[in-house]
Amino acid sequence: MIMEEKKLRSLIPIQAEWSTPQLQENIASALDGTGPALSTSEISIDKIDKDIALVVNTSGSTGSTKPVAISKSALISSANASNKFLGAQIGDTWSLLLPTTHIAGLNVIIRATVLGTRVIDNRYTTSYQDADFVSIVPTQLYKAVNNDPKLLEHLSAAESVLVGGSHLDPKLKKEAETKHVKIVTTYGMTEMSGGCVYSQKPLEGVEFKLSNKGFIQLTGPMMATGYIDNQGKINPFTDNNWFTSSDIGEINNGLLKVVGRTDETIISGGENISLVFVESEIKKIYPDSEIIVFSLPDDKWGEKLCLGSSDDISLELIKSKLGSLLTPKQIFKFSPIPTTAIGKPDRIAASKLALKLGEKN
């Protein structure tokens, strides 16, 4: 029997000089198969399986990036499920406030495309054009609530505001909601074509469960095809159709709570410490300060708990509130706080910056 040769399509990088309407047109062509597949970065291959529409790098906030191949059907399933959850109708609009180098920003364009509307690019303006739906990260919500009344007005005018990409502080969420921002929290990853759990509930077709180690596992029609290796081969994430994340979760009454990432937990002096938990507890003490909690290698502790901030922080005050175990061993002055392109706390960048600052002292 002669094996049928796999059908391929062209794969090109997204061009920096494309306008947002041009990018949306190219994404639409990638989705309907009339144009080439698109990659968010330069890649060693120029052909890919005909079913793949996008190759998107993972955010890399906790390590090296990986190119993820996402099919046309997965992207459309994700957009349709998102729009359905939110009650979005044909003709409704989406506001783009996220970078298009990541799945979250690309999804905003795709959701608008399936609704038959032009995405409204509000990234480089202070005169925001109103839209029915918006997607942002917690850093942007913090900015809106604390020092950007025009952005706050833009968010308040939307029917729903998706907030995801990193931990959303409950106090910030409550404060934004008192200012009439209708928040929908999101959880997901590039491997699941972005957010697939909204306000702790699965989108249509999505299922979640916990592994025997407590890792969040996900499946659904928006699951990406796999990672692309150096030879251009697409390797599936799994052989059982469930994607296992690096996140620890809890499930109560059908709702998924993300406890934290396993790679955001350190072992210091033989004790497990959640960086996300410590960060959230210190923010309760210093609610108006931007901080980041990270670790550095240490001979005594194995991993040393550290804190970065642009403000003056008292370790004595933190210790009096949280005790010795959860008190950082060292503070570094950062201005600004390191974040990834999508606004997640960049703990790796913080560690590298702290090491450089330490060398200067």
Oligomer: single chain
User: What's the CATH topology label of the largest domain?
Assistant: Rossmann fold
- Radius of gyration equals 21 Å
Give the termini distance in whole angstroms: 70 Å
**Proper CATH architecture of the largest domain:** 3-Layer(aba) Sandwich
Structural class by helix and strand composition = alpha/beta
Helix content: 25-40%
Uncertain stretches of 5 or more adjacent residues: none
Overview of this protein structure:
The protein is of the alpha/beta class. The chain folds into 2 domains: 250 residues, Rossmann fold (3-Layer(aba) Sandwich), CATH 3.40.50.12780; 92 residues, ANL, C-terminal domain (GMP Synthetase, Chain A, domain 3, 2-Layer Sandwich), CATH 3.30.300.30. The chain is built from 9 helices and 23 strands. A hairpin with a 5-residue loop joins β15 and β16. α4 crosses α5 and α4 packs across α6. The longest helix has 15 residues. The chain starts with 7 loop residues before the first strand and ends with a helix.
